[in-house]
C-alpha cells in the first residue's frame, strides 16, 4: 500500500470519527453553578481510634440523576470523589466526636470532571452534662467518654456544582422530555418548607396534599427510604377545593419521623388509604439529618 493511499484512509477514518462524535454529541446544555448534587456514601465510617483519618477517601456516588431542562447531565451511580475533611475523636469528660465529609468532584455524561463543593458534618452524642453532674455529686473526676461520630453507608447528603459547565448531550436527548409521572395521579404532596423554616423550634412537618374531591382524606406515611413501616397517621389541619380537587394541609410531629430517619437526606411516601386501596406520593425530605 503506497503512502498516499494510506494517508487517504487515515484521513477518511478520522473524518468518520469526528462526524460520529458530532452526531452523538450534537448539542450542549449549561450545567449552572450551585446546581445541587445528591451524594450517597458507600461505606461505614466510625470516628473511633484511628479508624477514620483526615484526608481519607470515602467511597461515594451520585444518588440520583442531575437533570437540567429534561437532560441528564450527571447520571445516578457516577462515582464521586469525597474525603474526610475533619475528624475529632471522642474524648473523656463526655466530649463528643465529630466528622466532616467533603465532596470534591464527579463526572458528567460527556466525561468532563466536574468540581463540587459542600459536604456533610456529623457529630456524636455529648455526655458532658452527665459527666459534670456526676463529678459534682461525687466530688471526683468522672471520666465518661463522649460518643463517637458515626456515618453509615447509604447516608445521603448534598453538594453543589462549583462553577458553570457546558455539557454535551447525546442527540437522542435533544427531544424535550416531559415528566408526566404525576399527570393523572390520584395524589400529589409537597413539604411546606417555608412553614418549617419560619419557626424557631418547629414541632411539625406540614404537607400540602392534593387528591380528587371524592377521595379519602385519611393520609399516612407508610414507607421511609422505600422500606415499609408501621403507618404514621397525619393530622389534617385545613382543606379547600380547587378545580374538582381537594387540597389538604396535614401535619405530623417531627419527632415521629426523626426516630425512623437515616442520617443524611431521606425519602417518604404519603399514602391515601381507602379500604384496601392505596395510592401514594413519594417525596424527598430535603433536610439533612
Order of helices and strands: HEEEEEEEEEEHEEEEHEEEEEHEE
Which strands sit side by side, in order, in the main sheet? Answer: 2-4-7-8-9-12
How many structural domains?
A: 2
Structural class: alpha+beta
The percent range for strand residues is 35-45%
Q: In CATH, what is the class of the largest domain?
A: Mainly Beta
CATH architecture term of the largest domain = Beta Barrel
Radius of gyration (CA) equals: 26 Å
Determine the CATH topology of the largest domain. Answer: Lipocalin
- For the termini, the CA-CA separation is 68 Å
> How would you state the average pLDDT, rounded?
77
Count, helices: 4
State the helicity in percent bands.
10-25%
For the secondary structure, the number of strands is 21
> Could you name the ranges where pLDDT drops below 50 across 5 or more consecutive residues?
19-25, 91-95, 123-146, 173-184
- Overall geometric form: globular
What would you note in describing this structure?
This protein has 289 residues and is of the alpha+beta class. It has four helices and 21 strands. It has two domains: 149 residues, Lipocalin, CATH 2.40.128; 98 residues, Immunoglobulin-like (Sandwich), CATH 2.60.40. The chain has a six-stranded antiparallel β-barrel with strand order 2-4-7-8-9-12. Strands 14-15-19-18 form a four-stranded antiparallel β-sheet. Strands 17-16-20-21 form a four-stranded antiparallel β-sheet, with no helix packed on it. Strand 5 and strand 6 form a beta hairpin. The N and C termini lie far apart (68 Å). About 17% of the residues have low confidence.
Amino acid at each position: 500500500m503506497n503512502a498516499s493511499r494510506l494517508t487517504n484512509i487515515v484521513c477518511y477514518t478520522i473524518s468518520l470519527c469526528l462526524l460520529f462524535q458530532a452526531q452523538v454529541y450534537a448539542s450542549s446544555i449549561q450545567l449552572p453553578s450551585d446546581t445541587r448534587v445528591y451524594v450517597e456514601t458507600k461505606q461505614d465510617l466510625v470516628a473511633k481510634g484511628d479508624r477514620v483519618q483526615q484526608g481519607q477517601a470515602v467511597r461515594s456516588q451520585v444518588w440520583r440523576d442531575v437533570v437540567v431542562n429534561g437532560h441528564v447531565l450527571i447520571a445516578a451511580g457516577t462515582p464521586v470523589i469525597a474525603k474526610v475533611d475533619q475528624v475529632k475523636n471522642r474524648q473523656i469528660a463526655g466530649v463528643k466526636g465529630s466528622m466532616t465529609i467533603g465532596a470534591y468532584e464527579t463526572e458528567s455524561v460527556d466525561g468532563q470532571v466536574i468540581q463540587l463543593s459542600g459536604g456533610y458534618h456529623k457529630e456524636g452524642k455529648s455526655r458532658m452534662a452527665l459527666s459534670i453532674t456526676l463529678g459534682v455529686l461525687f466530688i471526683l473526676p468522672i471520666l465518661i467518654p463522649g460518643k463517637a461520630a458515626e456515618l453509615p453507608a447509604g447516608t445521603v447528603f448534598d453538594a453543589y456544582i462549583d462553577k458553570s459547565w457546558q455539557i454535551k448531550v447525546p442527540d437522542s436527548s435533544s427531544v424535550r422530555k416531559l415528566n408526566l409521572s404525576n399527570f393523572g395521579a390520584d395524589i400529589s404532596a409537597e413539604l411546606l418548607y417555608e412553614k418549617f423554616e419560619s419557626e424557631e423550634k418547629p414541632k411539625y412537618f406540614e404537607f400540602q396534599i392534593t387528591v380528587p374531591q371524592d377521595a379519602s382524606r385519611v393520609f399516612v406515611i407508610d414507607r421511609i427510604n422505600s422500606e415499609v413501616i408501621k403507618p404514621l397517621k397525619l393530622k389534617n389541619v385545613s382543606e379547600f377545593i380547587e378545580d374538582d380537587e381537594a387540597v389538604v394541609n396535614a401535619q405530623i410531629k417531627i419527632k415521629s419521623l426523626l426516630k425512623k430517619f437515616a442520617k443524611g437526606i431521606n425519602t417518604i411516601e404519603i399514602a391515601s388509604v381507602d379500604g384496601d386501596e392505596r395510592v401514594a406520593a413519594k417525596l424527598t425530605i430535603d433536610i439533612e439529618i
